[in-house]
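Q: How would the structure tokens look for this protein?
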Amino acid sequence: MIVAEIPAGVSSDRHRHPGENLGYILEGTIVLRVDGRTPQTLTTGDVFVIAPGVVHNARNVGSTRARVLDTYIIEKGKAVTTRDPDPRQRRQHRR
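A: Here is the predicted structure in token form.
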């Protein structure tokens, strides 16, 4: 478990986890973008679940910091997070 703090106007990098991610918004407002889903606006008290290996990121769209309690169910010894670059950046690098 961790408490992730996202300053106003800031977005987390696109990333994935090798296990399930259960989140609870402690304070603030974020837009959660999960590959294959419509973006969701979440506020204090909202919850979310992200399946293992699914790429996602969160952007704080509020005027104050956002705090998210994240619980990860991950096999012992595995890295908690793997960054995943924006697909547009990957296409540019292939040229």
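The chain has one domain: 2-76.

The beta strands are 2-6, 15-16, 20-27, 29-34, 40-43, 47-50, 56-60, 66-73, 82-83.

Upvote if useful.
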